[in-house]
Amino acid sequence: MNFLIQIVIFIVFIFSPYSAFSTENKPVEMLAGLSKPPFVIAETDKGMQLEIIEAAFAKSDKVVRFTYLPLNRHLDVLHSREFDGIITLAAQEKAWGICLSKPYIIYQNVVITLEGTALSINNFDDLVNLKVAAFKDAARFLGEKYRETFKNSSSYTELADQKSQIGLLFSGRVDALVMDVNIFKHLLAKQRKSNSSRAIYNKKYQVHFLFKPRVYTAGFKSKQLCQQFDQGIKAIMDDGSYQKIIDSYLN
Fold this sequence. Notes:
This protein is an alpha/beta fold. The protein has nine helices and eleven strands. The chain folds into two domains: about 1-105 and about 215-250, Periplasmic binding protein-like II (D-Maltodextrin-Binding Protein, domain 2); about 110-210, D-Maltodextrin-Binding Protein, domain 2. It has helices spanning about 1-15, 50-60, 75-80, 140, 145-150, 160-170, 180-195, 225-240, 240-250; strands at about 30, 65-70, 85-90, 100, 105, 110-115, 130-135, 155-160, 175-180, 205-210, 215-220. Helix 2 links the parallel strand 1 and strand 2. The radius of gyration is 23 Å and the shape is globular.
């Protein structure tokens, strides 16, 4: 009899809404890309996007766990393993039977120059005769017009290490940078803190918006999670915590 009672108690515990095994208490398992500071910093489980997602789901008393994989593997892995969603999807992504959230993060590539250089940059043609340092594979991602602009240029370079881009601009070795504006501000803030004695990083700069912003959503297998995420994003935008997260990585 005691054995039967123990079985009944165990079953009730398992299916109790307060059980540690309840699906309500399971972390939301999200696929994230590899490190791209300040958006994703895989080494520390930090980053602008990660904190925004955590804050949004905290409004539903949910915790989030991230797994980091190259972006081109996300959609395949999502359905082959027990993941709930993907943190970065283009707004037009309609395939794979997933629920897309409302847009919640913007990537904005820009051209950056130093103030006082008397450079007027209104289109790609204005960059032709300048020394330009861009992010790795920029010519592949930024469209045909951009690619043609620098096709035969000997003063155009692409760098995998974006921190080195900052140094090239502020030391005067290049005239302009092409990179995401938030990545630039994040890296510059770090340089200014770690190199406070080097006046070159305190120079003023100008941002030229020659590229369209790229708006991204999150994708979920569950419509309920998708709706909770949207509600959470609205809540943190309304209470100001969304902007506080953004600012914490740029100053």
